């Protein structure tokens, strides 16, 4: 069982949740390897980040090794522009493609997350004209890109399509979005607003994959590295407890996500409650009630943690949950097509 983390979260600001997620996942034994460690020793130094030459950052922290792609997009995308120069471009293409050369069972994406051109996009710095990230392109392929201006059309994108990515992601059972809009937020007519989960599901559907998607609905801000607030350790501890309770074997993650998805989703909700509910700054990562006239039922959260189960059912944080008792952490709020 393999983990892949592709994140634009900042190593200096808000990336610790990703480190804790990887460490706790491997410690739980539900995942036994990860793509970042497999590629660590062979990472091309010319793609690496320095103060003079921005690029991909390789960081080891909290007992975990990860790559951050944020520096590709900072300072008007200078890192991306450097690495797509002719002397670096072949190396960059090969290394990005290598992320998807082995089957992935748990996929984590981090950074800004929204809809562009009616497709899900994950990207880095949002305060510059040039966006760098990955999305599903018009050929229905996972594609890394760098746009030259914020007003750039599709013909102005520098694209690096990952042609084999979908085939290797067909085994994904669990997907975590460390950013905004992982879970649809509210229904308007026949459509869910911010339907990124629906788009990812539609993209993976031809492979037979039906991942359980966890994360948050509405806009969010990840915990800062200076804060000791993390949902991942409790989530993976609960997952390990489920594995023992159900006497599962090496394919426990697959079985849990396919046969017990609601229990996995509730474990995620409970972990977010205990990590963030009491926080003055990060309580929104558990749940925050709408101010004014809500487009959801009165009293429900307008933003918070949630999940989309493999069957398309949508769950949001339950504002009545208090950490125990009859109420469950997440409640059913609707279904995707």
> Quick check: average pLDDT?
89
Multimeric state of these chains? single chain
Number of strand segments = 18
Order of helices and strands: EHEHEEHHEEEEEEHEEEHEHHHEEEE
Main sheet overview: 9 strands, mixed
Shape: globular
Structural class: alpha+beta
Number of helical stretches of at least 4 residues: 9
Taking all Cα atoms into account, the compactness measure Rg is: 19 Å
Gap from first CA to last CA:
29 Å
The helix fraction, in percent, is: 25-40%
Beta-strand residue percentage: 25-35%
Whole-number tally of structural domains = 1
Low-confidence stretches: 291-295
Task: Explain what you see.
The radius of gyration is 19 Å and the shape is globular. The two termini are 29 Å apart. The strands form four sheets. Strands 1, 2, 5, 11, 14, 15, 16, 17 and 18 form a nine-stranded mixed beta sheet that branches. Strands 6-7-8-9-10 form a five-stranded antiparallel beta sheet, with helices on one face. It has one domain. It has nine helices and 18 strands. With 337 residues, it is an alpha+beta fold. About 1% of the residues have low confidence. Helix 7 runs antiparallel to helix 9.
Keywords:
337 residues; alpha+beta; 5-stranded antiparallel sheet; 18 strands; globular
